[in-house]
Description:
Elements: H1 2-16, E1 19-22, E2 34-45, E3 58-62, E4 76-77, E5 81-82, E6 88-90, E7 92-95, E8 108-116, E9 126-134, E10 142-143, E11 149-158, E12 164-172, E13 179-183, E14 186-190, E15 199-205, E16 207-216, E17 226-233, E18 239-246, E19 249-252, E20 256-257, E21 263-271, E22 277-283, E23 288-293, E24 302-307, E25 324-325, E26 329-330, E27 336-343, H2 349-380
Parallel strand pairs: 1-14, 2-15, 4-9, 16-27
Antiparallel strand pairs: 2-8, 3-9, 5-6, 7-8, 9-11, 10-15, 11-12, 13-14, 16-22, 17-21, 17-23, 18-19, 18-20, 18-22, 23-25, 23-26, 24-27
Amino acid sequence: MRKNGIIAVLAAVMLLGSTVVYGAEQAPQATDNKAVFSQALDMTEAVGASVPGVTFNYTIAAGAAVAESSANAEVKAGVVVTDAQGNVTAPTIQGEAFSSADTVSSSKVVKNITVDFAGVTFTQPGIYRYVVNASPSGNADITNDAEPNRYLDAYVTRNADGSLSVTSYVVKKEIVNPAQTVNHGEIGYTYGEVAKSEGYTSTYKTYSLSLEKKVEGSMADLSRKFDFTLAFTGPAGTSFTCVIRNGGTDTAEAPVVLDENGTASVTGIQLNNSTGTYVITGVPSTVSYKITENIDEGEGYTTTHQINKGAATGTITTGTSTSADSTKELMGKNENRVIFTNTKNAVSPTGIVRNVLPYVLMVGIAILSIFAVHVGKKKEKPEK
């Protein structure tokens, strides 16, 4: 009897006061009844870009319960609190906002996603499963994580004062149930490294805009640098990186930063055949641009431009005789290469004579016609 009593006491200790431990896959410890995992934004394909202003949103729901078996521990359905419309009010889940003020480290920016269980009342210790779903970011240049769901197993244990709270948690990309071992009053759980997840990873991709200058013609000044202005419209706070690329050398220019109205201008760009290409990297697809060549049409240059090696647009005029503008273009999801070509040729003296000759002939024919009419009338006049 005495031996059986000792065994019963040990069993009770194991069930009511057991310690939760983990193997090699140590679970994160919860602080203040909160679970925290990550939302990363990969900037590898956004060279020269600032971090976009975006907040990722998430929803949380109860996961399905799983009965205990020889292969796994029991998993309870997550406890949630809902309002009259059926919306989950607890636990709450909130991500941190990304902004252009963020610093990129190792081509990534990482923020926290916090799940707060303060509004949830648990009645029993155990493993409670929740399903977290990430909503699309709404940013056209962000590709969201390929798997929108994460499975959060919250480990609820009894505190010294008898209350229950979340003390540790495991985040997974797929449904994997924890294996369980019991040894000397300690309960161990393992999932396997493949199943565990640090959170979500989304990718941000931007594009480049390049401006090139060509000068052609027998009367063109090949050494002259022509002046350009670039105007941008897009998300406020967005910034780009600008360089003059000449061969394999990049010369840094001042960055472009869109103001609170989402506009910015770059002035004083000087280009000719040999000065290289003005390149702007990190431009989102939602940004519109307009390029103006500041040239007096009275100088005799014919100005055309091409975008992405397309057909020339023809002579560009504004009616002011002081500049040649491209139309307002949307970057879109591609690299934009714009080439402005100025052409100026000599007009030969023979060309001038050739151009005037038709008018001289017309005047001569008119005079001959008048003379013929006059002679005809004179012949028809009766003799006295």
